[in-house]
Fold each of these.
Amino acid sequence: MADQEKNAFAVSKPGFDSINETIETTLGDIQVRGPLEPSSLNTLKLSEGLNFFRPARRQHLALVELAGQDDGLVFVASIAHKIVSYVSFQKPDYPWWQDRCLPEVIELGGLETDLSWRKMGITTTLLDYIFNNPKFTYFEDFIVIAVQFVQSWDLNNTGLAPWAYREFMLKLFGKYGFTTWETIDPEVREHPCNLLLARIGEKIDRSCITAFSYSCLGTQLP
């Protein structure tokens, strides 16, 4: 069953560079691309400021590896061949969701923008092209989850307290149709600020939404 689900995802994976746009700014041309194939990702350099999860060089290698997987998708915003922001997707790898994952569920696993490039609208530009793009509707066939943990938030550089950062994330993801979902996932319930966010694609039917809701609560469909 797991192999069938993975193969189904692989068949529907969008073509490389389904998004390929150049935006003129006073700081230079910003290119928004994705999903990138590993060879294209290798020609770009990850900004040294993209080091929240691990050092930039190791994070670059991790993204290249993810881009080559059947269920991996990497989208980037770059300037002068330097990646300053990225968003990555894969089938959920949290223990809770590995055991309960529906074929239609995909996880937004990584979202990071170089500190020196923040407050320039690059993050929202990248997300706009991914989720609010009439020419790219891939994710309308999926339930996209974004599991938010306090320990994954950049509280130090933003100066925000956990509850304020939580509101910031709700506002950011809310622009793209993400809403909060109740869950008994033990990792999410470890801290009151943790969140399970999900975006229901327009092509997802009611039965799938119901199954997802039951999965969130760890129960079986009647």
Amino acid sequence: MSETKTTSKTTSKPATPVASMFEMPKFEMPKFDLPKVDLPTGLRELTEKGVAQAKDAYEKMKAAAEEANDLLEDAYTTAAKGTADYNRKVLEAARVNTNAAFDYARELLDVKSVAELTELSTTHVRKQYEALSTQTKELAALAQKVATETAEPIKTRVSTTFAKLS
């Protein structure tokens, strides 16, 4: 077996900074002299009118986009507030239901007969059904309110914005 030994020659190259290796080369844009052409008056007026209309349309669209952005910010703020209110209501209902369950369990420990157990259970189920019914109605009303408060301004402002654009 023969071993080949390679020797490497080191050449001293100037170190290239890493940042400059990834930069785009900088070129100057060539300057072209455009010939000066006199446009007929009618064509010039038509061009100026087209430019003015384009600027006007751009300003209207820019204003509409800014309004839409403000509208979305307001809608998200309203929805976030409504969602927080809804979540608080759900947590309150859970707290009430949990307390009722613990109270029921405590009362079960004092039961001395099957008749008392039946009466206690019936009473507890009736109270829980009424509480759940009330909680469901309150949550549905709150959800409806949040949806309306979020959607109504959007509906109004969108129709107003489109009316301005027409």
Amino acid sequence: MTEHKARKEDKELLEDESQHSTAEKEESSEQKQESKKDKSHKHSKAEEQLEIAETELLELKDRHIRLQAEFDNYRKRTLKERMELLKTASESLLVSILPVIDDFDRAMQIMDSTNEDNHTKEGINLIYNKFQEFLKQNGIKEIEAKGKDFNTDLHEAIVTIPAPTKELKGKIVDVVQKGYFLNDKVIRFSQVVIGE
């Protein structure tokens, strides 16, 4: 009977061990599943954080590119404005010189009409030529008018007279006051006489 008891105890032991190992197996499989869940949960959280970081990075890159473009546009615009300012900075001074130019032109016409050939005439002619060169260097150019078609963008009609010839009908017969450009901008219109 002791043998039978020993077998029974061994059997019970084996059953306990198998139950215990089954329980351990179940616990280890539960732990594995939990660790898998934890890992997958951690993995999905890491993926979410990575996606958020990538989105933020793309937004920052986009903002940086836009900011660079805005700065470049600002730089170009201010450079253009500065160039325009430099071109027209002396406009008021040059406009106030125009009556002096008119007087100089009249004086030159009177001097050309006299037949005297003296040193004064040569000196004034030299000054006149230097003055004309100064005007060209500063971007002032005379508006061509005499014999041209009347253009309201360039000319101001003062008087209309009967045209001396058919070719001058609707054209400028005489210029009362010269007009001028400053770098392709009209700073004074030509005052003209038009033939009808």
Amino acid sequence: MSDDGTAPLADGERGLRTTVPRVIQSGGHARAFAAEGARGKLRASDTDRDRVVELLNVAYSEGRLSKDEYDGRLENAFSARTYADLDEIVADLPVARATMVAPVAPVAPVVPVAPVARVNGLAIASLACGLAQFAFGPLATIPAIVLGHMARRQIKRSGEQGAGLALAGLILGWAAVILGILILVLGVAMSVRTGGTMQ
């Protein structure tokens, strides 16, 4: 046995290799085992704990865990500190083999894109009624005003888009009302004047 812990080979084997390790291991398995051991010591993140909780939820819904087992493992998942702790919680579950907890590489933060707010339907209807006055006369005036007020109220509550459409419908509706009143007043005034002239 040499000083470095290796045994010399027979003379016939010297051309190939002069020493062999005292403990023979398959290189691939040794590296995988070392990597697995190092991974188990890494600290787990909240995302890793959440992934294990999802696995437990699936296993419980499939009837693989009793209520007590589920509650106990859930508590352990939330208090787990390392990947080894998390692996132990799901090691006997069949879903765990394919989705065993693995370290998550840090990724660049994703900038959330605000969803596009939809346009309020009542605002569209208010504008449509306001424009319909030109074709159908005063029949569409009251709906334009009522729908415009309802739309503005809904938009304030829900944050939807369409405030401009509702306002346009209101303006067209009220403009038609004011114009109708002016025409009525002028008509009455002219009829009074005409009646007075005839006397």
